[in-house]
Each structure stands twice: as structure tokens, then as C-alpha cells.
Amino acid sequence: MRRAASAAIYLLSSLLGALAFLYPFLDPAHAVQAPILTAGIAGLALLALVLEVQGRALSARTIALLGVLVAIVSVLRFVEVAIPGPGGFTPMFAPLILGGYVFGARFGFLLGAFTLLVSALITGGVGPWLPYQMFAAGWMGLSAGGLGRLLGPSLGRRRRLELTLLCAFGFGWGFLYGAIMNLYSWPFAAGPAEQYWTPGVGAGETLARYAAFYLATSFWWDVAGAFGNLLLILALAPALTRAFGRFRRRMRVELESAA
């Protein structure tokens, strides 16, 4: 029952996060109120996650590990702010992906969400975009954990294949993160009709307009992020996956439910 309740909280939080992104499209008549409503939705979802962390029977080791990794990755954002990289490049996402891949989907979700929260607090990056960043990064870690659960047992010692899949995963998320983050502001932007959303437009036309908007405004910015993820995972994955794996075996860090 406890595992089922925990899984339900993560599912509900993700659904509420998705609703926060999609609310302006679902209720155009109240789009002006969307930032306030979506902030409330996101806040409730994140509160549910905090309560889940406090209420589940997590080992002190697991919580300590999560705190250490959040702190380390948050410092990387401080480095990113001090020494900006090209375009959408950030050193945070590679270790986030690898942490989720090794320690599991729920751990990855918490790592992504709380890393963006803590890093925003220490770098002054707090704003209306923060809840959306937290969910997008949480989904990145969640999907990395799903990849690890799906492919980990079948890969065995095929390290090159594992590295190739992780690089491809990080490369794809370089674009996907940017595409998701655009959604929170795109409904309120104005510009050429063929690139911007208008209430009453059908789903197919909306997708076509968003694709045109993304290619015109964000694609090349996200190229740097995608290649940055790929190169950092290529450099870090062999060492970090082994180190994380040894730590998980020795300390018995388990956040995933048994299959």
C-alpha cells in the first residue's frame, strides 16, 4: 500500500505539472489568469513531493545521497552563471541524467526538481519560470530512471552500447527540455500568426505553429545544450555510472519499488 501511495503521488504530481503547462490551451477564456493558477497547481504538486519524501520510509542514506547530489549539481549551475557557455549549454543535466539512470526514476525526479529549486535560490534565478523548470528537470531525471530500469538488466557488460544510448538520450533531452520550457510562455507571446498560438486554432495547426516558432527562436540555442549533454555524458558516464553503481550496492540506496 505504501508503494502504491508513493507511486500515486509521483503520478499525480506529474499530471498536475503537465496541467500547469497546458492550462492556457485548455481554457483560453481564462488565459490571463493562467500564471496564477498554474503557480498554484505547481506548488501543490511540489508540496506533495516534499510530503512524500518526509513520509516515506526512506533510509537516511538515501536522503543524504539525494542532498549531496543536489548540492553538487547546484554548484555546477553557479559555475554556469559565472562562466556562461554557448547557447543553451549547461553542465547540470549530464550528472542529473546519470543519477536518475543509476538510482531510479523516482530518485531522478526528486534530483531534477530539487536541484533546479536549490540552484535557483543560490544564483538568484527565482521567477515565474521556476516551477516549470523544476518539473521539466524532474521529468528528465524520471525518464532517465525509466531508461535505466528498462535497459540496465539487458546491457550487462555491453558498456559501449550503454554509453551510446545514454549519449543519445542526453542529446535528445537537450532539445526536449527547451521545447517543454517554451510552452509556459508561448501562449502569451505575440508575433507572426504562423508562429504563435491563437485561441480556437485546431491541434494540427497549433503543432505546426509551435514547430515554426521553435525552429525560428529556440532550435539553435538548444543545439548547444544537446551537444553539451552528449559530450559531458561521453566524458563522465564511464566513471560516474560505476561509482554510483558501487555506492548503491554498498549503501543499499533503494528508491525504486521492487518489480
TL;DR of this structure?
By secondary structure, the chain is mostly helical. It has helices spanning 2-26, 34-55, 60-82, 93-103, 105-123, 130-155, 159-182, 203-217, 219-251.
Rg, please? 19 Å
Number of E-type strands: 0
Number of helices: 9
In terms of quaternary structure, what is this? single chain
Kindly report the average pLDDT value.
Answer: 82
CATH-defined fold name: Arp2/3 complex 21 kDa subunit ARPC3
Distance between the termini: 14 Å
Structural class: mainly alpha
Determine and state the CATH class.
Mainly Alpha
What is the approximate shape?
Answer: globular
Instruction: Summarize the helix and strand pattern as letters.
Output: HHHHHHHHH
Total domains: 1
Helix content: over 70%
Q: How would you explain this protein's 3D organization?
A:
- The chain has 259 residues and is mainly α.
- It has a single domain, classed as Arp2/3 complex 21 kDa subunit ARPC3, CATH 1.10.1760.
- The protein has 9 helices and no strands.
- It is globular.
- The C terminus is likely disordered.
Index terms:
259 residues; Arp2/3 complex 21 kDa subunit ARPC3; 9 helices; 76% helix; globular; disordered C terminus
Write the layout of secondary structure elements.
Elements: H1 2-26, H2 34-55, H3 60-82, H4 93-103, H5 105-123, H6 130-155, H7 159-182, H8 203-217, H9 219-251
Helix pairs in contact: 1-2, 1-6, 3-5, 4-5, 4-6, 4-9, 5-6, 6-7, 7-9
